[in-house]
Write a structure and sequence with these properties.
It contains ten helices and eight strands. The chain has helices at residues 8-17, 37-40, 45-48, 62-71, 108-119, 136-139, 145-165, 204-214, 281-293, 312-326, and strands at 19-23, 76-82, 123-129, 169-175, 219-222, 235-238, 259-264, 297-302. α9 packs across α10 (312-326).
Length: 327
């Protein structure tokens, strides 16, 4: 049995951590046009899927990434285990569309888990997409009850893998269920044919129960931009401070839970070669202190390249930020 909540000690550890590194990294990083490129550029699956046959991020170094986070003063990392494009960045048993079937052939999530464990002062967490532009059961329209059950089995199964195979986690971070997207009874399809919100339930009670049972010290955050429901331990704010809504999709209300603000260094989550609009160290320091003054956590994003390198300019910003906030 579970009360659908993180343990008191797990929540206390998350709140004490205060500052984390968000990492958006996947096949889309090879194209350098952001993590939504499959949708925004209307790339056919027949052109996007073969990227997996060339994905070989030989510059990836888990220990180096963890050291960069440590230099910034960050105490946890949250990385995209699977983004909306459906490509799994770990050795899942539930799909062949995964990094261990690419030329890279390794599991970077396992390497990050080992590097975090070796340091001992940085915890690992996973981002998981609730939608999937690759999975056939998610893509099928109209969607049958069996197709939706198949997709839920995949989604919950992947979360179960992440909560079982990578040691103690800091969090599970969900994305892809947004109130402004089509809901039950609507088609859910965009103009490009990509499916957004499904006509069905994600079975959050079952999903959150599983997480809290397998990872009692891991917080659950769902980036729904709405009032948290039972089982969600943290209220998140994307690209905005609590009470603000410059991004246009955040609720301005706070609901009594601990808060986390996720923020990009520039204007992009995934690697984007055209985006050099980096926030100054001074601005990021101000945001960090404001968020911490509100009792919240800041989750600051990096978008590594398709070769597996965190951009040098982002590394420099992080290290200077670490010096500022530790001084």
């Amino acid at each position: 049995m579970t009360d659908l909540q993180v343990s008191a000690s797990g929540l206390a550890a998350w709140k004490k951590a205060g500052f984390g590194m968000f990492i958006h990294w996947g096949l889309y990083s090879m194209l350098g046009r952001g993590e939504w490129v499959l949708h925004t550029d209307k790339i056919p699956a027949s052109e996007y899927k073969p990227l997996a046959q060339r994905f070989n991020p030989t510059r990836f170094n888990a220990a180096e990434w963890v050291a960069i986070a440590a230099d910034a003063g960050q105490k946890y990392m949250v990385i995209t285990s699977r983004h909306h494009d459906g490509f799994s960045m770990y050795d899942t048993a539930l799909s062949e569309y995964k990094i261990t079937r690419s030329p890279f052939g390794r599991d970077p999530m396992a390497e990050l888990a080992a590097a975090c464990a070796q340091r001992g002062d940085i915890r690992l967490g996973f981002y998981s997409s609730l939608l999937d532009w690759h999975h056939p059961a998610y893509q099928s329209l109209p969607r049958s009850a069996q197709a939706w059950a198949d997709y839920l089995g995949f989604l919950h199964g992947q979360v179960g893998e992440l909560c079982t195979n990578y040691g103690p986690l800091a969090c599970m971070w969900f994305d892809g269920d947004w109130p402004h997207q089509p809901h039950d009874g609507e088609s859910g399809a965009s103009e490009s044919g990509l499916v957004f919100h499904p006509a069905g339930s994600f079975d959050y009670p079952g999903l959150y129960n599983m997480i809290h049972n397998l990872q009692p010290d891991a917080v659950v955050l769902n980036n729904r931009h709405a009032q948290p429901i039972p089982g969600e331990d943290i209220q998140g704010f994307e690209q905005d401070l609590p009470g603000e809504n410059s991004a246009g999709f955040n609720t301005t209300e706070q609901y009594g839970l601990p808060i986390e603000v996720c923020l990009t260094i520039n204007n992009s989550w995934g690697y984007n070669t055209s985006d050099q609009n980096n926030k100054s160290v001074e601005r990021l320091t101000q945001i960090y202190r404001t968020v911490r003054g509100m009792g919240g956590n800041l989750l600051l994003n990096v978008g590594p390249t398709g070769e597996g390198e965190i951009l040098p300019q982002q590394v420099q910003i992080l290290r200077e930020l670490g010096q500022r906030i530790s001084g």
